[in-house]
Design a protein that fits this description.
746 residues; alpha+beta; 8-stranded antiparallel beta sheet; 26 helices; 19 strands
């Protein structure tokens, strides 16, 4: 392979993307500068792609596909085929003739593929499919010996060996077999027998030694009984010594009467923690520890067991124990405690000494070693079958992954959906093709908001099956007037299944230039509607209050009237406020009059252009802002928020964005009936108001130019303003000119 591979690129999304048109391109991916890759990593979840294929490519099993793993997959698959160009076909079946049998690995693959077909009774087939290979692989995994070096209890050929496997699992845990069942491998088996031998040898150190095992096998029970009460017994004898040192301490060392009173009214049990906290017996100077009577009820059973298992066999039958005898008892069991502390092979202790020695004396170790070796010997056979499945999957799926990883050819080509497109959302007479599955909408929105795209997060559910998922949909066409949290739609996934979709969160950004053009006017209309609604609500509340007051007055007519409320002082509107309002209105009307006056002076063909210019001046800032945001609209943050590592500024300009959202249109050749039987009756008042408003504006404009004054012979309006020529004395005012005109008229 030449180190100077010639690459070809296509431009889409505002940047250059590599074309993968030949098998040589795939084999040379390691030579392509990764700065030119569109993506460097992607997750193995949330993609419309075969999960088993992704698991094979994800060699380190970290849940992410990275560039080195993509390169390794392409190299391996291309090397196993006679012609790497076959990968570009994405064929569902792998022809046997396409396998490169010129290499040892290729020969093994071809032989395994033929074995798979023979197992399925398809020996005459010329190609093996992914389903064929998967079926045989699953059958092989379910066999008792499947090449993974792990044996399960069912693998054993006799009950004794099966029980040993169960014992090992109980002591050390299990390894999972390919079939998913618990079993053991060589490491677990070696550890078990090493621990078992150490446990047996540890027991041998004490066997026959009376100092260590003064009661033989019963020594363990005696030591356990002593350990159970040792802390309380030490506490008892210490308290008795203090009472002997100073008799005044006796009352303080015993529970006080108020402690009994605190819980005397409760339902008492001998396991009550308050009783268990009291001494083993009543404290007196140098008093022996009673073993049968006057013992704390919470400890009576433990003391009785102590007497039976330790005191009686080591010190004789006693009903009380002095502190000296207590010390003698501890001394006799001291060597056992030291030996017990040095226990070896503790992992197998639960089986007991006898069971451990029984296993060591049997042939279980050799039998298990042979079974594991026998299972391991089948590993090449399984690996070969698995390799056929792997090659069949790569032959079918790898090229599609490359066109959604190295380049975004599928996304920008608009022929096939990209693997990150989860389906189509239908909502508000639109279909959104750019929909992604989201695991955490809140975290996703933090980064996806930087994309400059109008995004709607939707909670989707299928009540019939109880399935739920969350998606994010990009709206790149139409407007946002009717998009709001809580709106419902239908989401169709890539398998064609329909989901109920409800908008749960919206990230607002411009959708289109036309939307931005009308945005200022819609805001004004919305503001007026809100003001009208607010005033109507206030008026309604005032009317309701008056009715309530009237009803109350009628009900309380026979009762003496309450004192009249203080009359509120009526505040007069400040004259300055009135003047300010008048000034604003005069300025507004003057400006409108000036505008329409200027328009009236224009030729007829320029009037529409002037009106269009005014509208454009109002909408231009909004349109400019929208244009700046739309040209920066970027797919990268949306994918990065889902775990991708997008390596390019994947733009979605206005034409391309428009292709991602379909807006409802009537089919070609459709017929429309424009008569709506339920249409609202139109009131003439809006037209009358508009007509009056326009009439006022026209009057203001004509009056400013003096036409009203001329037409009415000076009875209405203001006279035409007089132009003063340069150099002429400005002695005559407009009023003088008006007077002269009036005189001439007479």
């Amino acid at each position: 392979m030449s180190a100077n591979h010639t690459w070809r690129f296509f431009r889409a999304g505002g940047f250059d993307q590599v074309r993968l048109d030949t098998g040589a391109d795939l084999m040379a991916l390691d030579q392509l500068d990764q700065k030119l890759w569109v993506a460097l990593a992607c997750p193995t979840t949330g993609l419309e792609f075969d999960k088993a294929t992704l698991a094979l490519i994800d060699t380190d099993k970290d849940g992410r596909i990275r560039a080195p793993e993509i390169i390794a997959a392409a190299k391996w698959a291309g090397g196993c085929l006679k012609n790497p160009d076959d990968l570009l076909k994405s064929a569902a079946a792998l022809p046997l003739s396409a396998i490169n049998d010129a290499t040892p690995e290729g020969k093994q693959l071809l032989a395994s593929a033929k074995q798979i077909l023979a197992t399925l009774k398809k020996a005459d087939a010329a190609a093996v499919t992914v389903e064929d290979a998967s079926q045989v692989t699953e059958k092989f995994e379910e066999t008792l010996l499947n090449g993974d070096g792990i044996i399960i209890p069912e693998t054993a050929r006799d009950e004794a060996t099966k029980q040993v496997i169960h014992d090992i699992i109980a002591c050390l845990g299990s390894d999972l077999d390919r079939s998913g069942k618990p079993g053991i491998g060589q490491a677990k088996m070696d550890q078990f027998f090493a621990d078992a031998q150490a446990f047996s040898d540890w027991h041998k150190k004490a066997e026959g030694d009376k100092a260590v095992l003064p009661l033989g096998d019963a020594t363990a029970a005696a030591a356990a009984a002593v350990k159970a009460i040792k802390a309380k017994a030490d506490d008892y004898f210490t308290r008795c010594r203090l009472a002997a040192f100073d008799p005044r301490a006796s009352s303080a060392l015993n529970p006080e009467e108020k402690e009994y009173l605190a819980f005397a009214a409760k339902d008492l049990t001998i396991t009550n923690a308050e009783i268990a906290g009291f001494p083993l017996a009543r404290i007196e100077a140098s008093r022996p520890l009673p073993l049968t009577e006057s013992v704390n009820p919470a400890w009576a059973d433990a003391v009785a067991k102590f007497q039976n298992d330790a005191v009686k066999p080591l010190l004789g039958d006693k009903t009380a124990l002095t502190e000296t005898e207590w010390a003698q008892l501890l001394a006799k069991l001291g060597p056992y405690e030291c030996w017990s502390a040095g226990q070896a092979g503790g992992s197998v202790a639960k089986l007991g000494r006898d069971r451990v020695r029984q296993i060591l004396a049997s042939t279980a170790k050799d039998t298990l070693t042979k079974l594991i070796a026998e299972d391991k010997s089948l590993e090449p056979q399984f690996a070969a079958i698995a390799a056929v499945e792997k090659l069949a999957r790569y032959n079918r799926d790898l090229y599609k992954l490359l066109n959604n990883f190295v380049s975004f050819r599928d996304f920008y080509g608009r022929k096939d959906k990209a693997i990150f497109q989860a389906g189509t959302l239908y909502l508000d007479q639109r279909s959104c093709d750019l929909c992604l599955i989201v695991e955490d909408g809140v975290r996703h929105a933090l980064l996806a908001g930087l994309s400059g795209t109008y995004l709607a997060y939707c909670d989707c559910a299928r009540k019939a099956t109880g399935e739920k998922l969350q998606i994010v949909a990009a709206f790149t066409g139409g407007d946002s007037d009717n998009l709001m949290v809580g709106r419902n739609g239908i989401f169709y996934d890539r398998q064609g299944r329909d989901w109920d979709a409800t908008i749960s969160k919206i990230i607002e950004n411009p959708i289109s230039i036309p939307q931005a053009f009308w945005a200022p006017y819609k805001k004004v209309v919305r503001m007026i509607e809100e003001q009208v609604a607010r005033r109507a609500a206030a008026a309604d509340a005032a009317a309701t209050q008056q009715l309530q007051q009237g009803a109350t007055a009628v009900v309380q007519a026979d009762q003496p009237p309450p004192p009249p409320p203080p009359v509120p002082v009526k505040t007069k509107m400040d004259t300055g406020t009135l003047a300010a309002i008048g000034l604003v209105l005069a300025t507004l009307l003057g400006a409108l009059g000036g505008i329409f006056g200027a328009i009236a002076k224009l030729p007829a063909w320029q009037v529409p252009l002037a009106i269009a210019g005014i509208l454009l001046a109002i909408s231009l800032p909004s349109m400019l802002l929208a244009w700046l945001k739309l040209r920066r609209r970027n797919l990268g943050p949306i994918l990065d928020a889902n775990g991708w590592a997008v390596n390019a500024k994947a733009k979605m300009n206005v034409p391309f964005g428009g292709s991602l959202t379909g807006v409802a249109t009537l089919p070609p050749g459709s017929q429309r009936d424009l008569v709506d039987p339920f249409a609202e009756k139109k009131s003439p008042w809006p037209k009358i108001i508009v007509f009056v408003f326009v009439l006022v504006l026209v009057y203001v404009a004509l009056n400013g130019m003096g036409y009203i004054y001329d037409w009415t012979n000076g009875r209405l309006g203001d006279p035409r303003p007089v132009k003063v020529e340069k150099g002429a004395p400005a002695t005559k005012t407009a009023s003088d000119a008006a007077a002269k005109s009036a005189e001439a008229a007479k």
